[in-house]
Design brief:
Layout lengths: L1 H59 L6 H24 L6 H31 L6 H25 L2 H15 L8 H28 L3 H25 L1 H36 L4 H21 L1 H8 L3 H4 L1
Helix pairs in contact: 1-2, 1-5, 2-3, 2-6, 2-7, 3-4, 3-5, 3-8, 6-7, 7-8, 8-9, 8-10
Length: about 325
C-alpha cells in the first residue's frame, strides 16, 4: 500500500513539474514577443522623434511646405501602428489595443494631408496644358486651398496635448515591456506566426477584391498589403532573404494600388468641384471622368502584382 502511494505521489509530482514547466515556457514565449516589441518601439520612437524634429525645425526656419519631412512623420506613426497590431494579433496579453487606436487617431490628419498633397500634384497633371487657363488657375487655387487647410490642421495637431500624450504613451508602453535579449532562433517561431497572420489577412482581402474589384475592396487590400509589408520589414533580420523578396513584391503591389486610390480621390474631388462651382462644371466633370477611367484601368490590372506575390508561395513558409 505504501509502495502504491509512493508511485501515485511520484506521478503527481511529475505532472506538477510538467505543468510548471509548461507555465514557464508560456511565460518565456510571452516575454520573447514583448521583448521584441520593445525593440521595435525603441526604433519607432527614434524615427518619430527625428521626423518630428525635422518638421518643427522647418517650421521655425520658415519653410512653408515640406511634404517629404511630413511624409516621414506620417510613415513613422503608420509603421508602428501596423506593426503593433500584427504583434498584438499573436500576443493578446500585450495590451496594446488602446495605444494602437491612439496611433491610428493621431495619424489620420497626416494621412489626409498626404492625400491633399498628392491631389494637388495630380490636378496639375490632369489639367495638362489647361493649367494656365483661367479655369485651370481657379481649379489649382481650390486644390492648393484644400492642402493649406489640412496643413494648418496638421500644424495644430503637432502642438496639441493629444499628440504629445501619444508620444509619451509610446515611451511608457515601451519601458513597461521586458528587456530580455533573445537570439534569432528563439524569435523565429514568433516571427513566423506574425507573418502567418499578416499573410492570411492579405490573402483574404485580396480574394475578395479579385471577386469584386471595387474601390473599397482595393483600398482594404492595399492596407493589408502595407501591414504585411511593415511586418516583413520588421522581421527580415529574423526570417532572412525569403521575406525580403516578399517585401519587394508586396511593396510594388501596394504602390500600384495606392495610385489607384489617388485617382479615385481625384475623380471624386473633380466631381465635387463640378457640383459646387457651376462655372467649372464642364471642365471638372470631364476631368472627373478622365481620372475615373484611369482608376478603373488599374482596377483591372492589379492582379498581375498580386500574382507575383503569390508566386513566392509564402503560405508554405508561414
Amino acid at each position: 500500500m505504501s509502495c502504491l502511494r509512493y508511485e501515485v505521489d511520484a506521478l503527481m509530482g511529475r505532472r506538477g513539474d510538467m505543468k510548471e514547466s509548461k507555465k514557464q515556457k508560456h511565460k518565456h514565449d510571452h516575454d520573447v514577443v514583448k521583448a521584441f516589441t520593445r525593440e521595435l518601439l525603441n526604433v519607432a520612437e527614434s524615427d518619430i522623434k527625428l521626423a518630428d524634429f525635422i518638421v518643427r525645425n522647418n517650421r521655425s526656419e520658415g519653410v512653408p511646405d515640406d511634404p517629404e519631412s511630413t511624409r516621414k512623420l506620417r510613415l513613422s506613426f503608420r509603421r508602428v501602428q501596423y506593426r503593433l497590431a500584427t504583434i498584438a494579433s499573436i500576443e493578446p496579453s500585450l495590451g496594446a489595443d488602446e495605444l494602437i487606436e491612439r496611433l491610428r487617431d493621431v495619424g489620420k490628419p497626416f494621412g489626409r494631408l498626404r492625400d491633399a498633397e498628392v491631389l494637388e500634384a495630380g490636378v496639375i497633371k490632369a489639367l495638362g496644358n489647361r493649367v494656365a487657363s483661367p479655369q485651370g488657375r481657379q481649379i489649382m487655387d481650390l486644390a492648393a486651398r484644400t492642402r493649406r487647410n489640412l496643413q494648418q490642421k496638421t500644424d495644430e495637431l503637432l502642438n496639441s496635448e493629444k499628440y504629445h500624450d501619444t508620444l509619451r504613451e509610446v515611451s511608457e508602453f515601451r519601458t513597461s515591456l521586458p528587456t530580455r535579449h533573445t537570439s534569432s532562433e528563439t524569435l523565429s517561431p514568433m516571427a513566423e506566426r506574425a507573418m502567418h497572420v499578416a499573410w492570411q489577412e492579405l490573402r483574404r482581402v485580396a480574394k475578395q477584391a479579385k471577386r469584386n474589384p471595387n474601390d473599397k475592396n482595393l483600398h482594404e487590400t492595399r492596407i493589408a498589403a502595407k501591414r504585411a509589408l511593415y511586418a516583413a520589414q520588421a522581421l527580415s533580420d529574423v526570417l532572412g532573404s525569403p521575406v525580403e523578396e516578399f517585401s519587394r513584391r508586396v511593396d510594388a503591389m501596394q504602390k500600384y494600388l495606392g495610385k489607384q486610390h489617388d485617382l479615385v480621390i481625384a475623380s471624386q474631388w473633380f466631381r465635387d468641384i463640378a457640383r459646387d462651382h457651376p462655372n467649372l462644371k464642364k471642365i471638372a466633370k470631364k476631368l472627373s471622368i478622365q481620372e475615373r477611367r484611369r482608376a478603373d484601368k488599374r482596377s483591372n490590372r492589379w492582379t498581375d502584382y498580386w500574382q507575383s506575390v503569390k508566386d513566392l508561395h509564402p503560405d508554405k513558409r508561414w
